[in-house]
Specification:
The chain has 13 helices and 17 strands. α4 links the parallel β5 and β6. The longest helix is centred in the C-terminal third of the chain and has 21 residues. It starts with 11 loop residues before the first strand and ends with a strand.
């Protein structure tokens, strides 16, 4: 395998999670009579540029098809994150009626709605049909396609340049990461600012967040690797913020190296030092991840088997991609977890890929009163625990499996 950024041969493996279907390829009942496609799920480490990446087995067009069902507005925590981000950026960059904000991978328009409501001109670039349609219903202009250098050239030829380019949780989702960042650079106005948010590799490794690994995540990013990717496209990082989303993320602020107007902030040196201290650019840093992953799997599966043998019922909440990685790697099906509830109506009535556990409305939790509710999107643990607090009325307990099994 060659690195998708620098082209060097890759020999180091972070983890091998066997095989699974794409984590967002939800099934309908009619799909049960058809063969489900599974792909190897293996993550490798480039020892030249230190980009951590999945081994290529499936095209992005297969993963992000018209039926892609993720809507960012389904999480109250994420909605609040977007609202706060918009307020901060308007004040920090003095954005107004003469500005243009472009969000790449704008999904259902959750973030752009706040710019729109504040009177700041904005537009989205979003490849999936359902999400783009939802965003347009709010009056937001959306270009439905994958961002590439070629697509950016076309937009710029039409006079489109961003004073703020937003790329939240998309950098990890693009296979041709260099071409994508080149497109971002082209779209950015000469003195504009681009922000990239992505789960931080250090958090993934430290907490063994193996369930955040799935086919739709092509890359697992450190500041070291991101700076190299951005630099190749003529962008330079001038500030970095550590934020709590998705189990611990970075927000990177970038500008054109030749024309940017901001001096480097303290966050850049802080995160560079942190990554150097733990040894991100050494092979030793990545050793042991597989063993820790296997121990988490074993503990979770043991818990489920013991619950079944003691006739205690188990349900789950959150039909999230990370949950699908966990369930499929552990070999869990509806015999161990009877259903997963989710408030995203686009997922209700479908089945999780691989495990084929049914997805239902949250009301089913109250009807069936399970003894345990497994929170699959553990990064939203606080929000979900509060939302489902009523399970205490029948002495129900919550469960998370990552970073370690916990029942409370």
């Amino acid at each position: 395998m060659k690195c998708r950024h620098c082209g060097e041969e890759i020999r180091l493996t972070l983890v091998d999670l066997g095989s699974s279907p794409p984590s967002n390829a939800y099934l309908s009942s009619k799909d049960f009579d058809q063969q489900e496609t599974w792909f190897p799920l293996r993550v490798r480490v480039c020892e030249a540029c230190w980009l951590v990446q999945t081994q290529d087995f499936v095209d992005a067009e297969v993963l992000f098809n018209p039926d892609y069902a993720y809507f960012s507005g389904s999480s109250d925590t994420w909605v609040e994150h977007c609202r706060q981000y918009v307020e901060d950026m308007i004040e920090r960059l003095d954005l107004g009626e003469a500005s243009l904000v472009i969000e790449v991978a704008s999904n259902d328009g959750t973030l752009l709605r706040y710019f729109h409501d504040q009177g700041v001109p904005c537009m989205g670039i979003e490849p999936t049909a359902k999400a783009a349609t939802k965003a347009r219903s709010f009056g937001i202009r959306v270009i439905q396609e994958f961002l590439s250098a070629k697509a950016a050239d076309q937009l710029v030829s039409d006079g489109t340049r961003a004073d703020l380019l937003v790329a939240n949780n998309v950098l990890a989702h693009v296979p041709a990461i260099g071409d994508f960042v080149s497109g971002c650079s082209t779209l950015l106005a000469s003195e504009g600012v681009a922000t990239f948010e992505f789960p931080h590799l250090l958090e993934l490794v430290a907490a063994t967040q193996f369930d955040t690994i799935y086919h739709e995540h092509f890359s697992y990013l450190s500041l070291v690797s991101v700076e190299r990717v951005l630099s190749a496209a003529g962008l330079v990082v001038f500030e970095v913020e550590r934020i709590p989303t998705h189990g611990g993320s970075l927000r990177v602020f970038a500008q054109h190296a030749a024309t940017g107007r901001f001096s480097a902030g303290p966050g850049v040196a802080e995160v560079r030092s942190l990554e150097a201290t733990v040894g991100v650019e050494t092979a030793a840093y990545y050793l042991g991840f597989q063993d820790r992953t296997d121990r988490i799997r074993a503990a979770f599966l043991t818990f489920l088997l013991e619950a079944r043998s003691s006739r205690r019922s188990v349900a789950a909440y959150g039909a999230a991609a990370k949950g699908n990685t966990l369930l499929n790697y552990a070999g869990v099906g509806p015999d161990l977890i009877s259903f997963v509830a989710d408030k995203n109506v686009a997922k209700q009535g479908l089945f999780l890929p691989g495990s084929r556990i049914p997805i239902v409305d949250e009301v089913e939790i109250g009807h069936s009163q399970p003894d345990y509710v497994v929170i699959l999107p553990w990064n939203l643990r606080e929000e979900i625990t509060k939302q489902l607090g009523y399970i205490r009325s029948w002495s129900g307990s919550f469960v998370v499996a990552v970073p370690e099994l916990e029942v409370w």
